[in-house]
Structures are given as structure tokens and as C-alpha cells.
Amino acid sequence: MIFELTIKNVKFKILKALAFVACLIPLGLLGWDAYTDNLGANPIEVITRDTGSWTLIFLLATLSVTPVRRISGWQWLIKLRRMLGLYAFFYASLHFTTYFWLDQFFDFAEIVKDVMKRPFITVGFLSFALLIPLALTSTSGMIRRLGRSWQQLHRLSYAIAIGGVIHFLWLVKADIRRPLIYGFALALLLAYRLALSRTPTTTETEKCQSFLQDQMKIYADQGSPADQAQKLALADLCQTLLSTNEFLYVE
């Protein structure tokens, strides 16, 4: 048993290392294009666009972890969520630095004017500002220290993703296909989140109660004590809910 767990841990560590390297591929390709002078006539625009796009992709990937894990049953995905979120912050920082350094040359007066005058920059700036506390509180120590407040804080990731999509949509103006694709993916994730967080209907609650009573009677008839029968019935209910895609009701 211990040997099997060790093998699983080693396999996951290898998978996580491969995922870590894979997340750096977009940066590597961008660096290679810069080295080979293949960034086109406007390299600053290319760098800004690519780092911004990958920020959105990693944000959406981070938000997708929980739905994919629940639907597929791949529990190990949850261990990759922090890394994906930090990579979203990493590419957002590159995106922000490109604007500050290569585009504006640290001209803070001009940057302030830009933020005040151009709505898409305002939204992008606010989204990046909201992303900072999420990155700073991503450690295990901060999770323990903040407790329930940590979950409330990290729900901002949805607002940040919405801001990112709006930022991209207002930026491109003409060809809006890519921001619309990102927006559609985000809408699906938000719909799934709202479905999970809604209050169960009366019918759903009655089905759960009926299921519990039936299971408790079965275990009681088998000779289990009342408290044990209740625990076993609750375990059965949890297993039934986890085996459905919606996790909201018992068929």
C-alpha cells in the first residue's frame, strides 16, 4: 500500500513538473521570436497581445479546474490549480510590465492620463490590481491564516476574468472573435458556478431526505446502531451526489 502511494506521488510530481514546463512554452516561443527578429513590424504590440491572451487563458484554465475535476473525477487536478493561478499572475505581470516599460517608458504622468482616458486600460489596470492580493495569499500559510475569508477573497477571480474579457473586447474593437470565445467560455464557467451555489429546490431537498430515510432503514434492518446507520446513509448520499454531473439532486 505504501509502495503504491509512493508510485502515485512520484507520477504526480513528474506530471506537475511537466505541466510547469509546459506553462513556460508561450514565454519561450515569444522569446525565440524576439531572438530571431520575428515579432513583426510592431513587436511591442505582439508582446502585449500575446502576454494578455495567455493571462486570460490561464485564468480560464484555473477557473475550469473545479468543474472538470467534479465532472471527470480527476481529483489530482485540484493540486494544479494554484500553479495555474500563479502563472496567470505571471503572464499578467509581463503584460503589465510591457505596457509600463516598453510602451510608456515609465512615464507615470502619461500612464495616469491613459488610465483615465482609455476605458479598456482602466479595466485592465483594475483587474491586475485585484489579481495581486490573490497571488500574495496563494500560499498554504495564508490559506490557513485567512480561513473562510480566503475563499471569499479568491472569488474575485471571476470578476478579474470578466474584467480581462472586457479589456480585450474594448481593445480589439474590429475583430472581436477571440474575446467572444473567451467570454463564452467564462459564461459557461459562471453558469456552472451559479448552478452549484444556488439553494436546492423543495423537490430536491425532499428527494435527499427520502433517500436518507430509506438508507437509514436499510442499515437499521441490517443491525447497525442508529448513529452508525445515519453516518452510512450520509456517506451514501454524498457518494450519489458526487456521481452526478450536477451535484444538486438525487435521481
How far from one another are the termini? 35 Å
Give the overall average pLDDT.
Answer: 83
Sketch the major β-sheet. none
Low-confidence stretches: 1-5, 243-251
Number of helices: 12
Helix percentage range:
over 70%
> Which descriptor suits the 3D outline?
elongated
**Counted beta strands:** 0
**SSE string, helices as H and strands as E:** HHHHHHHHHHHH
β-strand amount: under 5%
Rounded to an integer, what's the Rg over CA atoms?
Answer: 23 Å
Structural class call reads mainly alpha
The tally of structural domains comes to 2
Notes on the protein architecture:
The protein has twelve helices and no strands. With 251 residues, the chain is mainly alpha-helical.
Question: What secondary-structure arrangement, pairings included, does this model have?
Answer:
Layout: H1 2-23, H2 25-35, H3 43-72, H4 81-103, H5 108-117, H6 119-136, H7 140-146, H8 148-154, H9 156-172, H10 177-197, H11 202-221, H12 226-242
Provide a quick synopsis of the model.
The chain has 251 residues and is mostly helical.
Entry keywords:
single chain; 251 residues; mainly alpha; 2 domains; 81% helix; 0% strand; disordered N terminus
